[in-house]
Specification:
The complex is a heterodimer of chains A (247) and B (282). Chain A has 247 residues and is α/β, with parallel strands linked by helices. Chain A is 32% helix and 32% strand. Chain A has a five-stranded parallel β-sheet with strand order 2-1-3-4-5, sandwiched between helices. Chain A has a five-stranded antiparallel β-sheet with strand order 10-9-8-12-11. A three-stranded antiparallel β-sheet of chain A has the order 13-14-15. The chains are: A alpha/beta (247), B alpha+beta (282).
Chain lengths: 247, 282
């Protein structure tokens, strides 16, 4: 079994390495001090199992899991018990609370070994489910071995492209493997509105609406870009704007 | 309220007339019983006026007594409130010494036992020292700045074991600061913020700079500066709770004469506390 250790504390990584030393069948293929390193390492070789800290700089453990995606089992390692429910929602193998004993560690490793080869559900959808009712304040996108962090305030609009969604922010675009419906559900519905089957718009970017055909309109954004607005999209948009005006 | 005042005055006037009437009736009754005709009847207006004066005197004495009692009660209440607030605040602050700080420190010790046993022992000593210094603060309203600073140094030494080179600490403590009285645990939550919301969110090494100086007017100025990640979401970045607690403590102690100001520029977060001269420690 191949293992990756992701923790921003050197001593915590050493402790895991020591615990794993008793298992000749386990190979540590990467040790990472932050999420960016983890994504880079996983691009070279995806491990079977990740020991993942939650509170880390830049990308937290859940975001790392989301961008890793794919076939990886995870054991969260943290001093905080507050993330246990979320960990359960993303189908984590186990949740180790620092400090933990050798026995507790062995139990977690046993479960991970027994689950080896099972195909976990797609990480992005799970991450959305795990977030529950809370809205995202940023979107993470993997781009090869790099990770972009887009604050939602800087997200102009999103466009559906088959299994992907194209995110437009500050003149650049990013592709993320996620459905537009799933992205929509994780964003604040008072700030983002589905103006079209394929378009999700940041309301702050809208400058005007122009008629196009009998049933559709064109939304003009602050940067001059034009997006189609469907009939039902227009209804959602006006309902939202009226709701805002009433506040 | 003029309406109420008029009503009270009217009521007293009516009472005065009534009371004086009763006074006259009693006088007449007594004089009739003792059969001294003429003398009382001739002095009736004077006796009546005397009755009103006696009534008004009694009323004013009563009012003065009431006012004195009310002011004493209000003062006692205020003192009690101050005391309770102070105690609650300190209890909250002690609980606020983050349990996760303890868990992480214990995990570091656990890791060190096999890597570097001597360092594990040092860490135990540091941790005990820190915890001990926070105990027994409840009875003290003020402690010397040097004591508060040592507590912060101890805390940072523990966090340095965890964060290694990621945490750089610098100090610039001016002369005459050591003995300045400060409320206990005023620095601690701010230093913790600097670590948790500053250093912990950085991949590259970051700094915490502590400086203190006594101004010419005897005012103590303490500045804590730390690097932070300006891109981190506000939820991860702000140390609202610790800041509010520190502000409240200053307000409770110095009644507006102390200040706490925060600012952020060029990736550095800055908190400045100014404490007025409060003389020697008791």
């Amino acid at each position: 079994m191949t293992v990756m250790i992701v923790d921003d504390e050197e001593l915590a990584r050493q402790y895991l390495r020591e615990m794993l030393a008793d298992h000749p069948d386990v190979e540590i293929i990467a040790e990472c001090a932050n999420g960016f390193e983890a994504v880079k390492a996983a691009a070279q070789r995806m491990p079977d199992l990740v020991f993942l800290d939650v509170q880390m700089p830049k990308l937290d453990g859940f975001e790392v899991l989301e961008v890793l995606g794919g076939n990886v089992a995870v054991v969260f390692v943290t001093a905080y018990d507050t993330y246990a429910m979320r960990a359960f929602d993303v189908h984590a193998v186990d949740y180790l609370l620092k400090p933990f004993s050798k026995e507790r560690f062995e139990a977690a490793l046993d479960v991970a070994k027994s689950r080896l080869g099972e195909r976990p559900p797609p990480a992005v959808e799970l991450a959305v489910a795990a977030r529950g009712a809370a809205h995202l304040d940023r979107v993470v996108v993997k781009d090869g071995v790099r990770v972009h962090i887009i604050p939602v305030a800087k997200l102009d609009y999103a466009e559906a492209q088959d299994d992907y969604v194209l995110l437009a922010s500050e003149g650049k675009t990013y592709l993320k493997q996620q459905t537009i419906a799933s992205l929509e559900s994780s964003l604040d519905p008072r700030r983002f509105v589905r103006i079209h089957r394929s378009y999700l718009l940041n309301l702050e970017r809208l400058t005007k609406l122009e008629p196009y055909t009998k049933d559709s309109r064109i939304a003009v954004l602050t940067d001059g870009r034009q997006l189609p607005v469907s009939r039902s999209g227009y209804q959602r948009l006006t309902a939202l704007l009226e709701g805002r005006a009433a506040e | 309220m003029p309406g109420t005042l008029a009503r009270v005055l009217l009521a007293h006037l009516v009472s005065a007339i009534t009371a004086s009437g009763i006074w006259i009736l009693a006088a007449l009754l007594v004089s009739a019983l003792l059969s001294v005709p003429g003398t009382v009847r001739s002095a009736l207006p004077a006796v009546y006026a005397l009755g009103i004066v006696v009534y008004l005197l009694a009323v004013s004495v009563n009012y003065v007594l009431l006012a004195v009692e009310a002011s004493q009660q209000a003062e006692a209440r205020a003192a009690q409130a101050r005391l309770l607030a102070g105690q609650a605040e300190l209890r909250a602050l002690k609980a606020q010494i983050n349990p996760h700080f303890l868990f992480n420190s214990l995990h570091s010790i656990s890791a060190l036992t096999s890597i570097d046993a001597a360092k594990a022992r040092d860490m135990c000593v540091l941790l005990s020292g820190f915890l001990r210094s926070t105990l027994g603060l409840g009875d003290k309203a003020l402690i010397p700045f040097s004591e508060e600073l040592n507590m912060a140094r101890n805390y940072l030494a523990i966090e340095r074991v965890r964060f290694g080179d990621r945490l750089q600490v610098e100090e610039a403590i001016g002369e005459g600061c050591d003995g300045c009285p400060v409320p206990p645990l005023i620095l601690q939550p701010l230093i913790e913020n600097a670590v948790v919301h500053g250093i912990a969110n950085l991949i590259e090494p970051g700094f915490i700079h502590i400086s203190a100086d006594v101004a010419a007017e005897g005012q103590l100025s303490i500045v804590i500066e730390n690097s932070f990640d300006a891109d981190a979401p506000p939820s991860k970045r702000s140390g609202g709770f610790g800041l509010t607690a520190a502000k409240k403590r200053l307000a409770a102690h110095y009644d507006g004469a102390a200040s706490l100001l925060t600012s952020a520029h060029d990736g550095a977060y800055r908190v400045e506390i100014r404490i007025p001269e409060t003389g020697e420690l008791p």
